[in-house]
Amino acid sequence: MPLRRSGPARRHLPIAAGTLVSLLSVLVLPLALTGTAGASSDAGKRPAHPERDWLGSTIAAHEGGDGDDPIDGAEPRGGTAKAVAGVDVSSHNGHVSWRVLRKSGVRFAYVKATEGTSYKNPYFAHQYKGAYNAHMIHGAYHFALPDHSSGAEQARYFAAHGGAWSRDGRTLPGALDMEYNPYGASCYGKSRSAMVNWIADFFRTYRAKTGRDAVIYTSTNWWKACTGNSNRFGKTNPLWIPRYGSSVGPLPAGWRFHTIWQHTSSGKPVGDRNRFNGAFDRLQALANG
């Protein structure tokens, strides 16, 4: 807002060049800092509908797939013949009948713990402990919002609210859910290099907090579009890939094989269905670190 001038007109005095630069610095620097702070302090913004954001909730809409469970019909192809059945759940699944899932052959489960740096799954304790009490190997995952705060901030929040790892032989390393933005631009307004750096920031911090390399959940199409098909993480972070059909399909750059395949976005009696790419003792090895 322009300042109102009162009193008699003032004379315009000449300003030295050095003085002008100093004045401009005083005016411009706070604006620049405010803009930067605004980008990182976006963490204070709560996600509008975290209960509708779960592992793969945006995949079918962007990439297709009817969500039918191939286990109920044709056998899915991809990975080993000894693949272990798993499930993933979030708050929209509510109270889960873990004993029923266990009897149906499910042997591992991932549960949504957090989103951004403000949301915690209100059913997390029930779901996470329920899977464990049903004698499943369990793990937690974080729904990433890269435009809300830094990767490090979200990794710390995740590790502090359910995503930590314990050496009990039945806890899987935490998983980072990287998929299409449910609130706006698919790549969260980030350049490809900025997205790769954000993911690296998350992974680095998560490892420092837990001692484990996080699993990454992402689709090949999203990875190509939003990271430029980076091959940076294939040697360190196990790949969990969604593809709703009868085969895994092509993998993102850097990974020679997948660790988990989410082959359907629905299941009976509840949850998305997954297959661990190996025998049960290899799943135990992943849990043991």
UniProtKB/TrEMBL annotation:
Family: Belongs to the glycosyl hydrolase 25 family.
Keyword field contains Cell division: no
Keywords annotated in UniProt: Glycosidase, Hydrolase
Organism: Streptomyces halobius
InterPro entries cross-referenced by the UniProt entry: GH (IPR017853), Glyco_hydro_25 (IPR002053), Glyco_hydro_25_AS (IPR008270), Glyco_hydro_fam25_subgr (IPR018077)
Organism lineage string: Bacteria, Bacillati, Actinomycetota, Actinomycetes, Kitasatosporales
Gene3D superfamilies, A to Z: Glycosidases
Methyltransferase keyword on record: no
Catalytic reaction(s) noted: Hydrolysis of (1->4)-beta-linkages between N-acetylmuramic acid and N-acetyl-D-glucosamine residues in a peptidoglycan and between N-acetyl-D-glucosamine residues in chitodextrins
Enzyme Commission code: 3.2.1.17
Database matches in Pfam families: Glyco_hydro_25 (PF01183)
Name the record gives this protein: Lysozyme
Disordered, as annotated region: 59-81
